[in-house]
Amino acid sequence: MVLHYNGTKLPFCVKFAYSLADNVEITQVWKYEQIPNNSEFITIKENWKIGLQFYVVDEESWDSESYIEIQTSLFDEADNQTTLSYKLTTDDNEIQWIYSDINEGVYPWRMGSYLIDIYYKGEKYTTAIKVAPTHLNSKQIEQIHSYLQGVAEGIIYDYVLSNQSYSQITSEELKTKWFYEYARFITDTQNLIVYALSKIEKNPYTQITNEYKQSKQIGKIGIKSVKWELMNGYSDSGKYFNKVKSNVYNTLENKWIKYVVYNWKSEISKALTLIRRNHQILQEETLTLEQKRRELESEKNRLNKKWNIAKTVILNLNSQILIKEKEIKEKMGILNQHERWINSLDSIKNRMVHLLANSFLSDIQIGQKKPLLKQNVYFLLDELYQESKKIKENEGNKKRLIKIYKPTWLIFEYYCLFTTLNILKELGFDSTEGFHPQMLDQFYENKIPSGHKFTLENSNSIIHVWYDKYHAHSNNEASEKGELFFTNLLKKRPDIKMDVYKKVDNGDLLFKDSIVIDAKFRKLQSIYSKDYVKDTFDQLISYNQFFYSGENRMYNSRGSIVNRVICLYASEDGTAVKQVEQPITFIKLFPEIKDESVIEVGKKELKEEFIEWLDGVI
Fold first, then answer.
1. How confident is the model at residue 233 (pLDDT cuts 50, 70, 90)?
2. Share of the chain above pLDDT 70, in %
3. Which one in 204, 392, 418, 530 has a CA-CA gap of 20 to 30 Å to 434?
């Protein structure tokens, strides 16, 4: 196949390869401003091994300065979207590997479309790729994302707005996802905004008018000068009524610019307030994590001096320390970005305050109607302001061609979590804890924190739903942490774990048992085989080994507290919706779209499992 630009053949090829024999080739490129919206870009599968073939069709066409840049969904510490860059080669059998192993680094794309820029002999050509989920189609993933967002917001609003201590918070204030893109936009356009503000301050638009002023020196005489002299006569002081030209600042254009600057300053102040609020919360969380990390290091040093310590104990501490260090690094990256945003927004806001208070704008009324702006810098400032408003309203132009989602495995994990919470709500349980105003910020900004607990209850029982909770290694460790559960497993953090307690007349709670739910965004055949035990199935079996360290229990038992382990997987491979392979229950869970209607496959079966589990405590 041949690569074309505007009907002309180009002397190089671009392919995305799974192997030399299995690749997809780009056949069309454009200038950036010419890319049609309905282009059918090539599609690659998310999380598959993938490489690039970028080579010339003949050696005479090779250029040492030519290269290709591919947009990714990753951001560096300065919050700049990273790109992958590869040189042009002469070998059509050479694959420059982008992602070659599931354990090697981070896959560079999430579901979405990404621009590709090709620089060849001084010319720049542009195209794009689509990254599609492996086991579901794009429409299903969009439905999962929409469903997740609606359920998440609904559950959080239900709790937050019904909680008296949060009663002053409006639903609009909870939807704070906009201010991150808003801050990013202000930072990206800071130089343009400063340029426009400075130009307007130094060279404001004025209208020239004729005025008459008294002066001791004779100047230009007009008809009003003559009339003034006839009426007043010649003054003994020798004053003259001269005609002079004056610059008038109180124009429609300047009134509108004052409106823009005044309102923009207020919106930037609101964004700053929200960022600083989250910044403070994140600082406190980081300090807590750092304290926990130091405690774990101290405990590790103490135990290393002991003789005959179980290997799993040290491995457990090492795992916890690594988890804390990773969480601290992630939060520090966000904190650093917050500080850059705060500095940028503060700088712009202060310039606007100065312009309003110390320039010609201080004596001008605020306009209400936008006039035709013929001056370039006036038009530029207004255009930037209007675009910032669109971003706040979630309508702004995006650098990405379509919305880039969270990784599909994480979307599926959230889908399983909120489907679980929604089923419990349908069974008559009300949310009482774990839903706070910052949860939407966490949800949109990064992810729901590991170890987060949701509490739901009815008149008879209480359920704790744990998300990605790292459990204690021993009974003693659980007691020291004030926790009730432990396991000696190396993998101690199932995706979802639910613990149910029965209420008794004296106000105590009796622990019944637990369910472990693990979300696997893959096909069933990659999890389970009748012929041999796969690693993933072995991991699922091990989740039966959780223990309770408390006293009040419905049944007198010191054994495992896990009632059942449920594996939720996403696939359309013709398997039954529910399949039990002792001791694991597999349920296929995903929204199926038929004739524009949505069928939540697997939800009914999951609900039946919950009803059976909760028998006697609902």
1. low
2. 79
3. 392
Rg (CA), the chain: 33
User: Which domain covers residue 597, as residue numbers?
Assistant: 138-175+406-613
Number of other residues whose CB lies within 10 A of the CB of residue 504: 12
Residue 297 and residue 439 share a domain = no
Separation between Cα atoms, residue 126 and residue 116, nearest integer Å = 6
User: In the predicted model, is pLDDT for residue 203 greater than 70?
Assistant: yes
Domain co-membership, 231 together with 351 = no
Name every residue whose Cβ is closer than 8 Å to that of residue 512 and which is 6 or more positions away in sequence: 461, 500, 501, 502, 553, 554, 555, 616, 617
What's residue 401's pLDDT?
Answer: 37
Query: Of 363, 391, 419, which residue constitutes the final position of a domain?
Result: 391
Kindly state whether residues 511 and 582 are assigned to the same domain.
yes
Mean local confidence (pLDDT), 605-609: 96
Cβ 155 vs Cβ 426: under 8 Å: no
pLDDT per residue as tens digits for the range 25-61: 999 998 876 777 656 688 898 888 999 999 999 989 9
Closest CA to 477 of 288, 291, 296: 296
Here the tokens at position 124 are 């720049």
CA distance 7 to 467: 54
